[in-house]
What does this fold into?
Amino acid sequence: MHVLAAMRHDSNLSLTHAAKLQGVKRETIKKYFPSALKQANGKFRATKSDRYAATLYVPDAHGNSVAVKTHSSKEREQLGLYLRDLGRYLRGKRDALAPWHGKRIAGVELVTAGRAIVAIEPALSDFSLYRTFNGGAD
It folds into this structure.
């Protein structure tokens, strides 16, 4: 999915180059995400959005990771933007989370209360939108 996001971000990025940057073969992307690609003039381009499901993670009011099952690239992009703004808030831009107040993405309410964020700030240092597993440990 990172390949498709990179291609959406940079329209000049070829499928081959984007796949190589992520360490996968272009054939793998074509096999598993065919409806997220379109071909024009012999070149593959990413569609504006896709309907693939992916599980991402956001912090809850206690600093725990909450699994969010997204159903589109738009929802994945929104979660990334929320986490970007959460980082901006933590770096002192106090109005960064204003657009997210009371919002839900894929049914999960986003944490925007200043007190809750300050309380969970230490837990956010190890937080990742995409959870990774090392040797089966979480």
Summary: Helices lie at 2-9, 15-22, 26-32, 73-90, 114-124. Strands lie at 37-40, 43-46, 54-59, 65-70, 104-105, 108-109.
